[in-house]
Amino acid sequence: MTGLADRLEDKPVEVEQEVTALELFFDLVFVFAITQVTGFVSGDPTWTRLVEGMAILAALWWAWEAYVWLGNTAGSDEGAVRVVLLSAMGAMLVASLAVPRAFGDDGVIFGVAFLTVRLLHLGAYAIVSREDPQLRFVVVRMATTMLPASALLVVAGALDGTAQALLWVAALTLDYGGLIARGTEGWRVVASHFAERHGLVIIIALGESIVALGVGAEGLGLDAGIIAGALLGVAVAAALWWAYFDFVSIVAERRLREAPPDEQVRIARDSYTYLHLPMVAGIVLFALGTKKTLAHVGDELEAVPAVALCGGVALYLVALSALKRRNIGSFNWPRLAAAALLAGLARIATVVPALVALGLVAVVACGLIAYEAVRYADARDRIRHG
After folding, report:
1. Please, which residues bridge with residue 353 across strands?
2. CB 120 within 8 A of CB 84
3. SS3 category, 15
4. Residue 69 confidence class, pLDDT cut points 50, 70, 90
């Protein structure tokens, strides 16, 4: 009995922390950034543009993640932190405006704005860590990779071709690899706030896919094909929402909440900071595919939009399966099978009308949800109501 009491005393009490109005306000700029990436690729849907768009998304995601960790640590939007966050919104907006020509004439503007976002982030941490030497130490450790990576993007903006591409690769490698190389020692996580913030960004991304449907249909007559395409697009978006929020998000948050402090930070890094990026990327790709589909419902899709339409949903499902593997220890094989089927549909999507291709994606996505609702009904009930 004494041993149990000791273990209960050792377990930290979860601090209640809600997502603030300022954090949601900040996320609106990230919404615009996502929209800009979709527009950037759809304006000239080539393989090069697709890779560039995903690189830009990866950079913007990492900057946004830095502020998620900041909000989770600070737990407040008062005083000087509020001013820093509002200033960072301005810098992020400028970076988002530069997205369409981030690999061209506005490359330096993008790089400088992005560097400013990162410097303001470190400035906010300097304020928060004034009376916390341990936090100050881990922030300095983080800055040793963050600042060089951001500086590389400024230099990349002044170059073009292979040199520019190599600097982008080096910057992203330094940023993403630096978090693993520097370790998680010294960090702490408020589980409920961290999980809620990432759930909200998934909704934001799904909302952008709905916006893409409207943009794709803009200026076109509202005929049966457009209506059918819009409804099919919403059906797929609903399936993506269901696949995450029905029980995956609940399990992930509980796993994060119940883990010991050191393991909590590693789960937050792996399950949320890393694995939520391919989910968002998958939604952005699907949005690109639906935008092109609504604009040409009766025509065959070109290679890049076809891959985006089918592969985006596949990437999302693979990321969800990887999340299950990280938290539970096993893959979700039905979702991996659906992802493989969707990958195979990408080739078919180039030889059938775009509306048919979207219909096939909807059949696979909604069919997967229907299968899981029946196959895992008892487990789902225990997770949601047990």
Report:
1. 300
2. yes
3. coil
4. very high
Distance CA 12, CA 265 (A): 14
What φ, ψ does residue 353 adopt, rounded to 5°?
-55, 145
The torsion region of residue 18 among left (phi > 0), alpha (psi -120 to 50) and beta comes to: beta
N- to C-terminal Cα separation, the chain = 26
Indicate left, alpha or beta for 329 from its phi (over 0: left) and psi (-120 to 50: alpha). Answer: left
* CB contact at 8 A, 45 and 292: yes
Assigned token pair, 81: 């932190």
Q: Residue 146's CB: how many other CB atoms inside 10 A? A: 24
Residue type, 31: V
Q: Answer whether 198's CB lies under 8 Å from 68's CB.
A: yes
Asked if residues 189 and 72 have their Cβ atoms less than 8 Å apart, the reply is yes
Supply φ then ψ for residue 300, to 5 degrees. -75, 145
Cα gap 78→16, rounded to integer Å = 17
SS3 278: helix
CA 214, distance to chain mean position in Å, is 22
Residue 244's pLDDT band, with cuts at 50, 70 and 90, is: very high
With contact defined as beta carbons under 8 Å apart, do 350 and 302 qualify? yes
Integer CA distances (angstroms), 85 to 17, 147, 208, in order? 18, 18, 23
Q: What is the pLDDT of residue 270?
A: 96
Give CA–CA dist 252/372, Å, rounded: 18
Q: What's the token pair of residue 243?
A: 């696949």
Q: What is the DSSP string of 201-264?
A: HHHHHHHHHHHHHHHHHTTS---HHHHHHHHHHHHHHHHHHHHHHTTHHHHHHHHHHHS-HHHH
Q: What six digits make up the tokens of 61?
A: 């995601």
What are residue 300's DSSP bridge partners? 353
**77-91 residue pLDDT tens:** 778 888 999 999 999
In single-letter form, the type of residue at position 326 comes to R
In this prediction, residue 217 carries a pLDDT of: 77
Residue 149: both structure tokens together: 């990576």
Amino acid residing at 343:
A
DSSP annotation of 50: H
**Two tokens at 30?**
């990230």
Q: What confidence category does residue 131 fall into, taking pLDDT thresholds of 50, 70 and 90?
A: confident
